[in-house]
């Protein structure tokens, strides 16, 4: 049996039999998107089920109460509330707007009455979202307890230091670039420069702006820089399925994969929706949703007309998540709904295709339930996600700017008719579910491990504090290059000197020899 199988078995046994005292855990995620909250809430629910008391600071109200979870609601926590129309804005416009809002948004959250009240409460562990929340390190410093980072995506270059891990720009494409592994030489140059530039901008500009705003509002301590506190975390929990990452990456023990923690088996559909789906017959139905962030009704009219025209031409029924009650020219085979039980829909065997914006959670849910995708990305990492889906062979994508009747209808028909696409997604589904334990169990083990060991500082890698040139041995190889170059140069000059001496000495020797022979003959 391989060593990792043995380790997994030991971990499973420890999770099952080891008793852990209930702890007070604080989850700080006041700024983000609704999809971020889905990931964080899944973590909170798993911990609450283990009898831990969880206080969850969030910008979104829940429609239900969960045992052992106390939600602290902060208004204005919607990360994209002030950005321009996502369908018509460029990626740079959205990023600049977010960057300018970030320092003030974080300081306002930190200064809120709800978070200031938390300072007086007792917690055993803090879990901090890394999205626009850097000023909250001052709160963690005040509480003086171990803390864990939460990231709603895979590990990125700007977070590798707080994860105590290493990021390789040589093989991991930045999600904001149109690059797919493996990278060519030119792409590696572009990717490395982009990562380095983004890192410098984040640390030297955004982080400094956030700390300055925090100090100006007298919310951050003067004695300890936030940049120092941020490196003292223990675990870094990411929303990624390790076995499905392309390429597979090296990680330190502090990086914990919890991708798919929110996924669950499908439940029966509400009766009215069940009746509508049943009437679709053997043709089945298609599900179309742009997620929880994008407001579908803000799309340009020309896009909406193309969607309506294509959906009307299909023999399948189409379930369309739309944020308004009606649509004037709605085809007879299309049903609108403001809210849809997405995982119950994705797990329905009559579903033939999921048309999506390409969000990470939706992609994971589609894999978990074995559904092929057609991506129409809007912003952020969605472009990268749908390109990856096409490369892996379990879906297709089309850009909004290229959206026409033919460019949309053709990939829909292709996915519906191509059995190989269904085979690929079925294989991915099997890989995602074939793990020694569920993402919730895995995450819980490591969180409780951190609780048992005072934050587990022994797991921290020196990567967090090592300068990049030491981490990659740049100084060593530079010395080797310099010494080798000097050795080559020195050898060259020595050989040239010998050669020069030889060339100069050879004519004299020949002349002397000839003179001797001539004199001998004369005698």
Commentary on this structure:
With 523 residues, the chain is an alpha/beta fold. The protein folds into 3 domains: 16-261 and 438-464, Glycogen Phosphorylase B (Rossmann fold, 3-Layer(aba) Sandwich); 271-433, Glycogen Phosphorylase B (Rossmann fold, 3-Layer(aba) Sandwich), CATH 3.40.50; 473-523. It is built from 17 helices and 13 strands. A 7-stranded parallel sheet has the order 3-2-1-4-5-6-7, with helices on one face. A 6-stranded parallel sheet has the order 10-9-8-11-12-13, sandwiched between helices. The radius of gyration is 30 Å and the shape is globular. The chain starts with a helix and ends with a helix. The relative contact order is 0.10. Residues 1-6 have low confidence and may be disordered.
State the main characteristics.
globular, Rossmann fold, 523 residues, 6-stranded parallel beta sheet, alpha/beta, 17 helices, 3 domains, 13 strands, 11% strand
């Amino acid at each position: 049996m391989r060593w990792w199988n043995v380790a997994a078995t030991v971990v499973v046994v420890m999770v099952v039999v080891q008793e852990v005292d209930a702890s007070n855990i604080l989850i700080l995620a006041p700024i983000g998107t609704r999809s971020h909250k889905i990931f964080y809430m899944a973590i909170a629910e798993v911990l609450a089920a283990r009898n831990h008391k969880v206080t969850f600071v969030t910008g979104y109200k829940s429609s239900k109460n969960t045992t052992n979870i106390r939600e602290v609601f902060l208004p204005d926590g919607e990360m994209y509330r002030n950005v321009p129309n996502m369908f018509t804005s460029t990626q740079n416009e959205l990023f600049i707007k977010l960057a300018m809002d970030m320092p003030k948004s974080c300081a306002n959250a930190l200064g809120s009455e709800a978070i200031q009240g938390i300072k007086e409460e007792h917690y055993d562990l803090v879990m901090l979202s890394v999205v626009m929340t850097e000023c909250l390190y001052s709160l963690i410093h005040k509480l003086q307890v171990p803390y864990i980072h939460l990231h709603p995506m895979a590990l990125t270059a700007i977070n590798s230091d707080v994860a105590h891990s290493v990021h390789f720009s040589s093989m991991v494409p930045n999600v904001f670039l149109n690059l797919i592994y493996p990278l060519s030489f030119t792409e590696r140059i572009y990717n490395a420069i982009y990562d380095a530039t983004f890192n410098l901008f984040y640390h030297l500009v955004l982080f400094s702006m956030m700390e300055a705003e925090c100090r100006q509002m007298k919310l951050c301590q003067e004695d300890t820089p936030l940049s120092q506190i941020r490196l003292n975390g223990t675990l870094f929990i990411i929303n990624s399925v390790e076995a499905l990452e392309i390429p597979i990456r090296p990680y330190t023990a502090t990086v914990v994969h919890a991708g798919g923690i929110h996924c669950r088996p499908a439940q029966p559909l509400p009766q009215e929706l069940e009746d509508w789906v049943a009437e679709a017959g053997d043709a089945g139905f298609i599900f179309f949703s742009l997620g929880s962030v994008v407001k579908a009704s803000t799309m340009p009219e020309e896009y909406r007309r193309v969607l309506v025209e294509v959906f009307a031409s299909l023999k399948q029924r189409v379930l369309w998540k739309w944020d308004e009650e009606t649509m004037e020219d709605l085809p007879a085979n299309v049903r609108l709904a403001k809210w849809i039980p997405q995982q119950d829909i994705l797990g329905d065997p009559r579903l033939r295709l999921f048309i999506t914006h390409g969000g990470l959670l939706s992609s994971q849910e589609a894999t978990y339930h074995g559904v092929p995708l057609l991506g129409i990305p809007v912003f952020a990492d969605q472009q990268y996600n749908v390109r990856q889906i096409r490369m892996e062979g379990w879906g297709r994508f089309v850009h909004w700017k290229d959206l026409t009747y033919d460019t949309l209808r053709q990939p829909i028909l292709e996915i519906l008719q191509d059995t190989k696409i269904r085979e690929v997604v079925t294989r991915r589904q099997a890989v995602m579910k074939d793990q020694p334990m569920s993402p919730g169990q895995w995450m819980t083990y490591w969180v409780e491990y951190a609780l048992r060991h005072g934050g587990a500082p022994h797991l921290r890698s020196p990567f967090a504090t090592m300068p990049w040139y030491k981490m990659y041995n740049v100084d060593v190889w530079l010395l080797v290059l310099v010494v080798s170059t000097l050795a080559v140069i020195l050898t060259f000059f020595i050989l040239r000197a010998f050669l020069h001496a030889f060339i100069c000495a050879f004519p004299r020797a020949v002349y002397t020899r000839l003179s001797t022979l001539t004199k001998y003959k004369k005698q």
